[in-house]
Design brief:
Strand 14 and strand 15 form a beta hairpin. The protein folds into five domains: 74 residues, Beta-grasp domain (Ubiquitin-like (UB roll), Roll); 223 residues, Aldehyde oxidase/xanthine dehydrogenase, molybdopterin binding domain (Aldehyde Oxidoreductase, domain 4); 167 residues, 2-Layer Sandwich (Aldehyde Oxidoreductase, domain 4); 88 residues, Aldehyde oxidase/xanthine dehydrogenase, molybdopterin binding domain (Aldehyde Oxidoreductase, domain 4), CATH 3.30.365; 141 residues, Aldehyde oxidase/xanthine dehydrogenase, molybdopterin binding domain (Aldehyde Oxidoreductase, domain 4, 2-Layer Sandwich). It starts with a strand and ends with a helix. The radius of gyration is 28 Å and the shape is globular. The strands form eight sheets. Strands 8-10-6-17-14-15-16 form a seven-stranded mixed sheet, with helices on both faces. Strands 2-1-5-3-4 form a five-stranded mixed sheet. By secondary structure, the chain is an alpha+beta fold. Bound molecules: FE2/S2 (inorganic) cluster (2 copies). One FE2/S2 (inorganic) cluster (FES) binds next to loops. The site of one FE2/S2 (inorganic) cluster (FES) has 12 residues, from loops.
Length: 952
Amino acid sequence: MKISFTLNGRPVTEDVPADQTLFSYCREHALKSVKCGCETSSCGLCTVWMDDEPVLSCSVLMARVDGHSVTTLEGAGAAREEFARCMAEEGAEQCGFCSPGLEMDVLALDRKYPDADDETIRRFLSGNLCRCSGYASQMRAIRRFLARHKSPDGRISARSEAAAQAEAQVKAASKGVTAEDRGSTLSRPVVKKDAESLLAGRPVYTDDLAPENALVVKLVRSGQAHALVTKIDTARALSVPGVVAVYTPDDVPSNRFTLAGQSFLECSPYDTRILETHVRYVGDEVAMVVAETEEAASEAVKLVKVTYEKLPAVLDMEKALDNATVIHNEADWSYGADRTGDPARNLVAHDVHEHGDVDAALAEADVVIESDYHTQAAEQAMMETMRSYAYVDAFGRLTVVASTQVPFHIRRQVANALGIPKSQVRVIKPRVGGGFGAKQTGCNEVFSAFAAWKTGRPCKCVYTRMETMSCSNSRHEMRMHVRLGAKKDGTITGIDLYALSNAGAYGYHGTTTIGLVGAKSLPLYNRAASRFAYDVVYTNIMPGGAYRGYGATQGCFAVESAVNELADKLGMDPCELRLKNLVKPGETLWQLGEEPLRSCRADDCLKRVMQLTGWSRRPLREDLGDKVRAIGVALTMQGSGISNCDIANVDITLEDDGFYVLKIGATDVGTGADTILAQIAAEVLGCDVDHVVTKGVDTDTSPFDTGAYASSGTYTTGGAVVKAARDLVEKIRAQAAAWWDLPLDAVEFDSGTVCTADGKQRMSVAELANRAIGFGLQPGMLSGHGSNTQPQSPPPFIAAVAEVEVDKFTGKYELTDYAAVVDCGTVINTNLARVQVEGGLVQGIGMAMSEDVSYDARGRMRTDSFMQYKIPTRMDVPDVRVEFMPSYEPTGPFGAKSIGEVVINTPSPAIASAVAHATGNYVRTLPITPEKALHGDPTEAPAPMSPSQAAK
Ligand code: FES
Ligand code: FES
């Protein structure tokens, strides 16, 4: 049909398909700011204006657009830039994938309700989902943006109050650690290097960059939980105009590999093929359609006829071990580095770790808490779904452009899957719209790569939200049995922890997530004897994978909940109980590879959060009439990278006029790693962050790095940056010394200048750079290299207090306050660290209160969209309160530890304890629904509540 409308102020008359959506029209017409995060009108990412009113472009057909005006972010004008500045100054854009939709809605809010209060803002923007930020930083940016109308000159202050406070706090606390006021950019709210692009909606993500002529890859997926494919009829699919190929298991290499993005030797079993006739969960890939258009590919997928021979499905992890149904009976299954499993028993991994005599310790205890705790499978739910595209270059090599956390591991996976040399594969990572661990598993890349390799044409594979939720990976479901013994005075004597983990259909990360269950929960109470045993089992559901926290989240829920229950049973304050037992600096983390603990202010974090929430002067439970208000606490730890495993390499070159190019293999997935690493380099080189250009990641040119996982970016790669920058400083000094005919020791490097101590010789680095290019010791640029591995993984700590108000009659409860204090060593970027904490806490709150991957009796996932799987909106969470407790980790770059993962661990145990204090019901099965709060966990008899908890 022919329609006329105005697009970003320009009149357009065009023939369009009557059923085309405005979203798809915008994307086809290079308006790449318009993003898709769902197919169910539930995310707000696709928001544009129609006649200045915000609409979800995915729900508007082009027929409706006739006669109207459409504005996208590209045409939003000067107000957009003002709001973008507010966002950038808060670090609120994070991955940026949700930003364009939010910006369109905030500008509309500004027009309608310039005096909007918080409640109005939250309601107006309740449909704008964000998974990174936890909303608090966005709220700060929005408030400041709206406040400009109220300021006399209509200008926005240079920096937010919150940012200034955070900076002052960290600076004050880091005395003697970070550089003083001499231009240092450490412990400051430096704006992310990519902020402007992200907030302008520039085409910087994978699908924005895919060639226009890329073929579309779509998967035919199993409708059965467990079956053998006996026949695949592709004839009708191949007859669809535009279909280029339909590939079946007969067409793909038979190599088995793992999709877990881990360092070689990979720990996960080699149990996967690109396509296979033995399908192991609903959603498993059976065939692959490659077509000229999205429509043709979708049509053809429906026409591939698959015949199955059904097999019994194992859907309950409790019944998996030694079940008569063997999920991986293939002869070519093989072990990765972990060899403790036995596929004939559906066993992926098994082990026992002991420290001390736990049975004796429990026998001598006055009180023993013994309970089962269950943590659900949970979705990472990043806003950018899984996606990649691939092409064969002029040299016949395969290039894969992927939204991934692990480019170098994807290179290995693709080569292994296709059976081609790794030298034939190049992986490029553009901007990534969030990962949270999901993109540490290469669910998607092998398909675009295989299709491009076979067809010789560019091919792209973009998963829908439904595929990303039901056909990729989630947090491993776990059941943990805890026996925790203590003396009457609260001294914990022993902890016996058993975990059963559900790997699902494939063993990605199954062998490794489980280790953190014990390794990151038990060391907090390191003076107690402990045992940690586990089984990881295959079942016929979607595979588990990596998700922020990576097993620690599950273990911390179990152990911290047991500690809370112990306190209640003993009638002790749960904070005092912890202060009595917590690990101290200088002690050994027996359960974490016997690592010595250097920096640790866990107890100070706890004391500070007690102060912040008035813990000591309020009761754990207050009767408000129809409601009960109650508080609960938790304290957790994580690590900083993987000791004796993670590797980071960094190159820094000195370029024309003295700017630096920082080449990294580390993967910024929206957290700001590119900026943080540039800050670290700038600190060593004594220059502005703007003088450091961060370049990553292209596996052909970037130095090897294991990728973005295990909280390794700042700590591990940051350590390599320090080494590389120092190496370059030495070379700069050597260059000047050679020119001046002096010994190296006679030349000093100071903030962009080389000079002699007596000041007789002096040269700016800019001048040196320009001369070195032509007249250096060796012709060419000076460059430094740093390589970093680590024998330790120093833990960050977080203490948090949750406050809930529970309706006495319905059990419906609201999280009314959440305060947390974090010890992550030196904070490198105050804004980005704060947003990491806020975002991680809100993800943890979602896991505690509402999120739950569930299946029906046939193994079909019920929760495969944002309609059923409820991540928190800004209506569901308060602005969480965050503070940092400074410490200095001597093994970290400028004293830094990690922050990315530890922040997700406290909400479940803290909220469970608050609810228990309110209702007397200890909910040990997540999520904590109102029903469980009111009636108790259906699988548990309510534990008795100590009378001492009722009032204090
Ligand atoms: S893509 Fe339109 S609301 Fe999610
Ligand atoms: S910043 Fe909102 S989803 Fe990433």
